[in-house]
Design a protein that fits this description.
The chain is an alpha/beta fold. 45% of the residues lie in helices and 11% in strands. Helix 18 links the parallel strand 13 and strand 14. Helix 14 crosses helix 21. The N terminus and C terminus are likely disordered. Bound molecules: adenosine-5'-triphosphate.
C-alpha cells in the first residue's frame, strides 16, 4: 500500500488527473496492494481482476487522496471505493476514535442504500473481520435510529436527508462526527443534488473534519458534480478512463447491443408479446415504462398469455421494492416491469423526501410516491441480459442509464426500444447522442433483426382481443389490489425477512393479478403459427442463452431457494387449528406445488 499523504499536502496541490493506461490491464488485486482477506472474498464472489476504474482508484485511495471518480455506468465504481475503505478500516494501526461511525457513505436513494449496505455486509462477512455497518433511512423513527447507531458502528450508509434528522434527534453529535469521521463517500454524486439534498449536504460539510478523506463517485461529469466537488473536496485527484473525451463516451456502455423496432403506440403490447412469447430476446428481461399504469397494463396483458412479470415502482412500500429487487437478482422470475420516472424527478429537481412518519392509511399510500426511489440510476440488477424500452425515456441520458442496467462490468447485454411515431423525435436525438461522432453514417442503434412481420401478424388477432380486455378499470383495480397486497405482506413479513434474508421465494412478486386464469390456447403458441425465420431466431437465442449459462443459473437458484421454509404458511397456521405445527414457527412448503398454485393459495390467507 502506498504511503499516506497528509491531507493538508494533498489539498494544497493543484488538481491532478489520472488516465488508466492500457498496459495496466494485467494489474491484479494483489498488485494493487489489496489485503488477502478482501482478495479471497472477491474470489468467492466470482470477481477475479479489477476493472479499469478500480485499477486507478484503489491505489489513490490507499494513498489517502481525495478522489473524484467518473466512470461509466456498470464499471465497478462501488467496489472501487468500498475495497480500500474497508481495508483502511481493518488494517488501521492507530486506534480509531469511535464516537461516531468512521466512514459515511451517502447515496441518493434507499434502494442504493440497501445495495451498498448488502455489498459491505457480505464483504465483511466473507473477510471475517470485526466491523459493523448500519444503514439509516429517513422513514426510521428516533428509537430505530438510536438502536441502529448503538454498538459503535464503523460504517454508516444513508441518504443525506437522514443526517440532519439524526443530529436534531441527538442520536449523532456533530462533535463526535468531527472527531471520528475518516472517510466520506458521495456515491452517484451527480444525482445527489438533483434529488434535492443540496442543503443537507451543505449543512453536513460543516461537521466534516479537514483530515477526512472524501471520495466522489459519478457516472457523468455535470455541473452538479462540480458543485459538490467544490463544496466538499479540495484539490482532489480527478480520475478518468482512456476513452473519455466527452460526456457521452464516459457513460455509454460499450458492451450492450442496441436495437429498435418501429411500431405504433397501440401495437406496443403486440410487439412485446411477440418478443417474449416467441422467445426472441434473452432472459432476464427488464422492461421500462414511463408510468405505473402502463406497467400494470403490460403485466395484465402478458399474464393472459402465461408470461408472469413483476412490477417495480415508487408507489410500493420500501420492503416490497427491496424484496422485488432481491428476488429478481436471485433469478426467481425472469421479467420485471419497472416504472422509470427519474427524468421527471430530475427535471423537476429538488423533490425531497418530506421526513414524514411512515405512511399510515392505504389511501395516503396510494397517492404518495417515494421521492427517494430510483430504479434506473445505480441499481445493480444482476444478470439482466435484455432491457426493453416499452416506452421511450424523455432524454438521451435517461436512455443511456436504462440500457446501462445490462452489460454490467465484464458482461454483455442487449436493449430493444419500441419506438412509436410520437417518440421518433426523442429517438432521433438519442441516436445522434449515442452515434459515433467520427463516422456520421454509423448507427449504433440498429433495427431488431429477429422479429419478422409475419411473426407479429400471427399474434395480432389474439393480442388485440386480449388488449381490449385490459381496460383502464382493470388496470386501476389491479394496481390498487397489488398495492394492498404488498402493504399487508410487506408489514407482516418484515420481521421474518430481517431474520431470514434468504427466504426469497415465499412471497412471489410476479403473481397473476387477473381474476381469470389465462386460457390454455393463449398460453401456448402453436408451432404452425411460426414461420421458419422465427423458428431459427428462437433457436439461436436459446443457444446463446445456454452458452452464457443463463438457464442453469436460474434453475439452480430456484432449487436452492425452495428448500427454505415458508413463514406465510406459519402465519396463516397460527390462526388455524394446526397449532402444533405453528408452534414450531414455520411449515415446510409442499414440494408438489407449482410456482403459482401453491404459493398463490397460501397468500389468500392474508
Ligand atoms: N472487478 C470486477 N470484475 C467483475 N465484476 C465486477 C467487478 N467489479 C464490480 N463488478 C460487478 O459489476 C457490477 C456493476 O458494478 P457497480 O454497481 O459498482 O457499477 P457502477 O459503476 O457503480 O454502476 P452505476 O453507475 O450504474 O452505479 C456489479 O454487479 C459488481 O458486482
Amino acid at each position: 500500500m502506498g504511503e499516506k499523504i497528509p491531507k493538508e499536502t494533498v489539498r494544497e496541490n493543484e488538481e491532478e488527473e489520472a488516465v488508466v493506461e492500457e498496459e495496466e490491464e494485467n494489474l491484479t488485486f494483489e498488485g494493487l496492494g489489496l489485503d488477502p482477506r478482501l482478495i479471497r472474498a472477491l474470489i468467492k464472489k466470482g470477481i477475479q481482476k479489477p476493472t479499469p476504474i478500480q485499477r486507478v482508484a484503489i491505489p489513490l485511495i490507499f494513498e489517502g487522496k481525495d478522489v473524484v471518480a467518473r466512470a461509466k455506468t456498470g464499471s465497478g465504481k462501488t467496489l472501487a471505493y468500498l475495497l480500500p475503505m474497508l481495508q483502511k478500516l481493518f488494517t488501521n494501526s492507530v486506534p480509531r476514535k469511535k464516537l461516531a461511525p468512521n466512514a459515511f457513505v451517502l447515496v441518493p436513494t434507499r434502494e442504493l442504500c440497501q445495495q451498498v449496505y448488502k455489498e459491505l455486509s457480505s464483504l465483511i462477512e466473507l473477510c471475517r473481520v470485526q466491523l459493523k455497518v448500519v444503514q439509516l433511512t429517513t422513514n426510521m423513527g428516533p428509537s430505530d435510529l438510536k438502536a441502529a447507531l448503538a454498538g459503535s458502528p464503523d460504517i454508516l450508509v444513508t441518504t443525506p436527508a437522514c443526517i440532519p434528522k439524526c443530529l436534531s434527534g441527538g442520536v449523532l453529535q456533530s462533535t463526535s462526527i468531527n472527531e471520528s469521521l475518516e472517510t466520506l463517500v458521495l456515491d452517484e454524486a451527480d444525482l445527489l443534488l438533483s434529488y434535492g439534498y443540496e442543503n443537507d449536504i451543505k449543512a453536513f460539510t460543516a461537521h466534516v473534519p479537514r483530515s477526512c478523506q472524501c471520495l466522489l463517485m459519478s457516472a457523468t461529469s455535470s455541473a452538479d458534480v462540480d458543485k459538490l466537488k467544490k463544496l466538499i473536496l479540495h484539490n482532489p485527484f480527478i480520475l478518468t478512463l482512456p476513452e473519455v473525451g466527452n460526456v457521452k463516451d464516459e457513460i455509454i456502455p460499450k458492451n450492450v447491443q442496441q436495437f429498435w423496432i418501429s411500431c405504433s403506440a397501440r401495437d406496443k403490447l403486440l410487439y412485446i408479446l411477440a418478443l417474449l412469447k416467441l422467445e426472441l430476446v434473452q432472459k432476464k428481461v427488464l422492461i421500462f415504462t414511463n408510468t405505473i399504469d402502463a406497467s400494470f397494463k403490460a403485466k395484465l396483458f402478458l399474464e393472459k398469455f402465461g408470461i408472469k412479470a413483476a412490477v417495480l415502482n415508487a408507489e410500493l412500500p420500501q420492503n416490497s421494492r427491496l424484496h422485488i429487487l432481491e428476488e429478481f437478482n436471485a433469478g426467481l422470475f425472469d421479467y420485471l416491469i419497472a416504472t422509470d420516472d427519474s427524468q421527471t424527478k430530475e427535471k423537476e429537481g429538488a423533490i425531497k423526501e418530506s421526513n414524514e412518519e411512515p405512511r399510515k392509511s392505504k389511501k395516503h399510500v396510494k397517492q404518495k410516491l417515494d421521492s427517494e426511489f430510483g430504479v434506473v440510476r445505480g441499481i445493480d440488477f444482476k444478470n439482466v441480459f435484455t432491457v426493453i424500452n416499452f416506452e421511450m425515456p424523455q432524454s438521451a441520458a435517461g436512455y443511456v442509464h436504462r440500457i446501462g442496467r445490462t452489460g454490467r462490468a465484464y458482461n454483455t447485454g442487449a436493449s430493444v426500444s419500441l419506438v412509436s411515431p410520437d417518440e421518433m423525435e426523442t429517438f432521433e436525438e438519442i441516436k445522434t447522442f449515442v452515434g459515433d461522432d467520427d463516422n456520421k453514417n454509423s448507427n449504433l442503434i440498429t433495427e431488431f433483426p429477429l422479429l419478422t412481420q409475419n411473426a407479429v401478424e400471427s399474434l395480432r388477432y389474439r393480442a388485440e382481443d386480449v388488449a381490449k380486455s385490459v381496460t383502464k378499470i382493470a388496470v386501476r383495480e389491479s394496481r390498487a389490489q397489488d398495492l394492498r397486497n404488498e402493504i399487508l405482506n410487506s408489514e407482516k413479513l418484515k420481521a421474518h425477512f430481517e431474520a431470514n434474508p434468504r427466504d426469497l421465494d415465499l412471497l412471489k412478486h410476479d403473481k397473476v393479478l387477473s381474476k381469470n386464469l389465462p386460457p390454455p390456447h393463449l398460453r401456448d403458441v402453436p408451432e404452425y403459427l411460426l414461420d421458419q425465420t422465427t423458428k431459427e431466431a428462437r433457436k439461436m437465442v436459446k443457444l446463446s442463452m445456454a452458452a452464457i449459462g443463463n438457464s442453469n443459473r436460474r434453475r439452480g437458484s430456484k432449487r436452492r431457494l425452495r428448500k427454505h421454509k415458508d413463514p406465510l404458511q406459519a402465519i396463516s397456521a397460527e390462526a388455524s387449528k394446526r397449532s402444533q405445527r405453528s408452534r414450531e414457527g414455520v411449515v415446510k412448503k409442499d414440494a408438489s406445488h407449482g410456482d403459482d398454485g401453491g404459493v398463490h393459495k397460501k397468500k389468500k390467507s392474508f
